[in-house]
Amino acid sequence: MSEVISHSSLDERRAGVLLHLTSLPGEAETGDLGPEAYHFVDFLNSAGMSVWQMLPIGPTQADGSPYQSCSVHAGNAQLISLQKMVERGYLEPSFLNKPHLYKQCKDYGLLEAWRNFHQHPERFDRKGFETFLTENRYWLDDYALYQSLHKEFNDQPWWEWPAAIRDREPQALAEARARLSRAVEYVCFEQYLFFQQWFEFKTYANRKGIKLFGDMPIFVAHDSAEVWAKRQFFYLDELGQTEVVAGVPPDYFSETGQRWGNPLYRWNRMVEDGFSFWIDRLKTQLKLFDIIRIDHFRGFEAYWEIPASEEYAVNGKWVKAPGDMLFDRLHELYDPLPLVAEDLGIITPEVDALRTKYALPGMKILQFAFSGEPDNPYLSYNHPENSVVYTGTHDNDTTLGWYRTLNDGTRHNVDEYLGYSKEPMPWPLIRHALASRARLAVIPMQDLLALDGEHRMNLPGTTEGNWQWRFEWSQVEADLAERIRHRVRLYNRLVTH
Q1: What is the pTM of this model?
Q2: Could you report the per-residue pLDDT of 5-61, keeping only the tens digit for each?
Q3: Which of 54, 120, 269, 411 could form a disulfide with 406 if both were Cys (CB 3.0 to 4.6 A apart)?
Q4: How does DSSP classify residue 391?
Q5: Strand 244-248's sheet: what is its strand order?
Q6: Complete domains list, the chain, with CATH
Q7: One of 112, 273, 295, 352 is an active-site residue; which one?
Q8: Among 112, 395, 415, 452, which one carries the catalytic annotation?
């Protein structure tokens, strides 16, 4: 490895919360960028927290997983707020008097806004729309056509489309763009609304002293605009089918490992291309977020390759990846690299060396700390300053749920290490996270609300019942923000400027 002098993206001691946008309360089927998002920013500000971490915000597929998006650039249209569309004049105020619309897909409201945008151009910023199209052409053209074709072909995956379209023959693409021009422009308008609402929301959050902390999966969904448009960067056969797929071997989340099914990268071609795929990807995400968690960081040093014919992840192998070359290139553009490395799982000295070379903070999960061994890296006195500490993540049980399911020996270790606190769980573990040497402490909203395991976000290795949790303001005790702020100040995590 060549020497790199880098700086951490974590500038000072901070505290934050982990809550996906879809988990916000509200009238719609999921949380969105409407008034509740602003209300939550106000709550964080009053609680002394200065970071809001969320999961990936791209358009999801049938299972709702934010880690299997059909685009690495686009925003999820279900996060667009009807209320904000009314405020901008895209919809009449009377639209909000139809509460049944909140319980349905937002497509109707988006289509109505699209019609008004076309029928009353004098009322809207057409120049702003054209600027958005120009600035985002590097991904939006392919994405809009992909989505339009997806609908035309009854949501079949792209490798089942007619061969000429599947293989992106120029004549077939030109004919499709002409045939679907209205549909393509509608998808562009949808993204314009998303980004317009997002930047308004981000400006508000930043002015309130809240940094937005995003999440970028390492791999890309097979049925996605990028895999269809950039097949040369993925291990696919001539029919667009995967040859090998991504996953992880057995670990503490799953005894049989996890077969994610994502196509794997042809890293040699990415090297030859100068990593434009990753440069473009980071460019988009840094428009949206102040800090980015890069999921499954160890896959940049070596990834688990599973033959596509295998049903399970066990029969895979480790294959080296050129992470050092990639991060050298990204470091030329950004110093500090505004990334946090998700370095959980099977971590080798080589993975640690790659992370520390670029001063990327790692993750420390307190639920993994109480094995009884004093050298456990998740124990707070072993945390490096340049790290992010969590009580748990979206893949863990809530802290209360976790604590209640511990065996007697482990629970004894937890109680002894936390000094037999008189506070009810999860507050002793929350205090422990805030007291850590790690510059950033992030607490899942479920833990701040002291919720049990019925409220966890995801159970790894399962495909049903995940990603659906939402909180209600009635669960937030009147003095909760004040109690959090007291602890944030006590452990020197209150950012006042």
Answers
A1: 0.96
A2: 556 778 899 999 999 999 999 988 899 999 999 999 999 999 999 999 999 999 998
A3: 411
A4: S
A5: 258-263, 244-248, 302-307, 317-320
A6: 14-360+467-490 (3.20.20.80)
A7: 295
A8: 395
